[in-house]
Every structure is written in C-alpha cells, then in structure tokens.
Write a structure and sequence with these properties.
This protein has helices at residues 16-19, 28-43, 55-63, 73-96, 110-113, 115-130, 153-163, 218-230, 245-252, 263-274, 285-292, 334-340, 345-352; strands at 9-14, 47-52, 102-107, 134-139, 168-173, 178-179, 191-192, 194-195, 235-239, 256-258, 277-283, 302-307, 314-318, 324-329, 366-368. The chain is α/β, with parallel strands linked by helices. The chain has an eight-stranded mixed β-sheet with strand order 3-4-2-1-5-9-10-8, with helices on both faces. The protein has a five-stranded mixed β-sheet with strand order 12-11-13-14-15, sandwiched between helices.
Length: 385
C-alpha cells in the first residue's frame, strides 16, 4: 500500500512543534535521530527532500520577540529572516556529520503559480538530487505576505513534491494521523488508517495544531493530500514525536495513508486538458517514435517552429504528417528554439553561446495525445489559443 523505503524519491515535511520545544530551542536528540533515519535511506540510494518548518520559532527566540514571532506580520518576517540562517546551519551540520550535502531553497507561492518559476524550481531540485544533495525547503516567510503565501508547510510540501516528481510524501505531525473527531476532545474518536476519498473525510479535520506552535493543522494536511492526490502521489500522516519516526513508520505502518490514482494518469490529464497552447513544434518520424516510447523531445528531431512562446509555455507537438501528436511545457523561448531546431547539442551550444538544456520538452512535462501511427494525414488545423 505504502512502503516508504521503496519510494525512489521521497518528500518529508517536518513541523515546528517537532523541531522546536516550548522554550524555542531545537530538540537536538530528536533531530539527530531523524537525520540518522534519512542518512540510512540516502546511503541506500533513496532521494530525499525535506520541507522544514521552524525558522520563525527559532528567529523569534533569538530576537526576543513575543508570541513566537507571530504577533504581527512584520515580526514573523523578521523572525524568519533571522531564524532561516540558524535552521539551515543546523540541518547542514547534522547531515554533514553523515557526509551528506545539504542545500537550502526558500520558496514562495509565486514560484509554483508561475510556470517559468515552477520549471526553474523543478530543474534545481532535479539537479541537486542528481548530485546527491538533500534539499531543505521552507517558505520564504521573510518576504511572504498574508495575501500571497502558502501559510503552512504542508501545502508547500505537496507542491514541492509535485515539482520534484516525487514518489510519495510523508507529513511528520504532532498527531499520529486522521481521526473521525478530535481525539483530545472526543473519547469516541476513531483512527482512520486509510483514505481513498479525500472529499469524504474533509469534515473530520480540525484547524487547530496540537502544540499551538505551527500554522497548520489537519485542515492543511488534508489540503496537502488533495494537492498530492491530483499529482497521483500517496501521502502519509505519521506521528513524528518519537525518536526515529521514519523507521517507526516503516516498521509498523502506523499512520493515515491517503491512496492516490496512477501518477501519470492524473498528471498527464491535467497537462493535456488545462493548458493554453502558444506554439507548435513539427517533428520528424524519429522524434515521433522516441516520444511514443516515453523519451524527451530533443532539438535534432524538430523540423519547424511556429508561434510566439517563452520557456515554460505550453506547445503542441505535430508529427511529420502535421497531425497533433503531443503537448508539453517547452524549455526554450521561440526565438532560441527556432535557431537550434534540427541541430545537434554541440552545434546548438555554438549558436546559443552557452550549453543548451538537455531537452526541449522533458518527458515529465509532456503528454502523448495519440500514437504516431494513429495521426491522420489531413493535419491539425485548430487555431492556437
């Protein structure tokens, strides 16, 4: 159902209440145990991304601010600016003790809402993971406003997991999962081990955080599960307070697991049906066959470029007969792609004056709309919208 150690790429969200004690200090022994769990998986080849809260709580203590730095927005921003450097240093030191490189990424809602910035974030995560680093992510609370922000790291973790094409998401929490009612107030509350219909359990959620320290609650965790569900990704809410929480979940399976549909079905359907198309790329037979086999689109296979688009925009891919073949998010502006269409990578580098991207459309950002053999001879005459 959900074997966390078998997920090739895993995102782990850690809340403030788990990292920071009531006095604003890091729970050192707990975090060392969690990092030891991560190190074991990292050595086994699992790629891990950590979404870590805690910067506001750490920074407010250092700055001597009341109410945990959340008295008003300016205090939260100042606390985050101070605490973020402390938090990153703690993660880097503990991971470094296991010879693991930590990398920090501070993200905002706009980094995921804007397609180009989304692709940039996805590319950075991909490269860091390929280099063996463990990215440590957090919302950039020092510049986020009340109106334009995630507001909690549960939702950030789900969106980051989408961008990273992760296999699964684990939300380490101050509660061990979803209950039919608030277990602290209702003795008849029943634990829910598996959820297949997120809409059917929305009424069970409480916005309260057990610690009062974080900004999330079960509402935000259900919203994170919904976001991940749309990307075809399973999610687990797991008790984070015990030492070695990842090992405990792997051994016992205790937690609430949100099942998800097939990843490619949900993700590709979204891309196929919900994007405006700003250009067309006509490819040769070899490229069409490569796309049908699940490969990325490369510049040598492109024969013609039409439209005005920028990197991150959606374009249609036409087969050699002119029929619609696929749709994807392009990695180049129209002007640059026109210059390197049909060119090999070494020639493209000379034309552009810099190393070209590995793909014009990465396979993770492309959906096949029909097989090459099914493409008709009349061509596709739909207007670009």
């Amino acid at each position: 159902m959900f074997a966390p150690d078998e997920a090739p790429r895993l995102v782990i969200k850690v809340g403030s209440a788990l990292l920071i004690d009531a006095d604003g200090h890091i729970r050192q022994s707990w975090l060392e145990a969690l990092v030891a769990d991560i190190a074991v998986r990292h050595r086994a080849g699992q790629q891990i991304i950590v979404v870590s809260s805690g910067s506001i709580a750490l920074g407010s203590r250092r700055l001597g601010l009341t109410k945990g730095g959340r008295r008003h927005l300016e205090d939260a921003q100042a606390s985050a600016a101070c605490g973020q450097i402390l938090l990153a240093g703690i993660w880097a030191g503990l991971l470094g003790a296991h010879d693991i490189i930590a990398a920090q990424m501070l993200l905002t809602l706009g980094d995921f809402e804007d397609r180009r910035r989304y692709l940039n974030a996805a590319a950075t995560l991909e490269r860091l993971l390929s280099l063996g680093a463990v990215p440590i992510l957090n919302e950039n609370d020092s510049v986020a406003t009340e109106e334009i922000r995630f507001g909690d790291n549960d939702r950030l973790a789900a969106r980051a997991a989408q961008a990273a094409q992760a296999s699964a998401l684990i939300l380490l929490s101050d509660i061990d999962g979803l209950y039919t009612a608030n277990p602290h107030a209702d003795p008849d509350a029943r634990f829910v081990p598996v959820v297949s219909d997120i809409a059917g359990v929305q009424h069970m959620a409480s916005a309260a955080s057990a610690s009062g320290m974080g900004s999330g609650g079960m509402v935000s965790k259900l919203e994170a599960a919904r976001i991940a569900h749309a990307a075809g990704m399973p999610v687990a809410i797991v008790a984070g307070a015990p030492l070695h929480p990842l090992n405990a979940f792997a051994e016992t399976g205790h937690g609430t697991v949100f099942l998800a549909p097939d990843a490619l079905t949900a993700r590709k359907a979204w891309l196929a049906g919900r994007m405006h198309v700003l250009g067309r790329l006509t490819v040769d037979a070899g490229a069409a066959s490569a796309l049908a086999a699940g490969k990325s689109l490369l510049a040598p296979g492109i024969r013609h470029v039409t439209g005005e688009f920028r990197r991150g925009d959606a374009v249609d891919v036409l087969g050699p007969d002119g029929a619609l073949l696929a749709r994807g998010l392009v990695g180049y502006d129209a002007a640059d792609l026109t210059r390197i269409a049909g060119k090999r990578r070494d020639a493209a580098a000379g034309i552009l004056g810099h190393a070209p991207r590995s793909a014009v459309i990465h396979r993770d950002h492309l959906v096949m709309l029909r097989a090459p053999a099914e493409a008709g001879q009349a061509g596709d005459t739909r207007p670009i919208c």
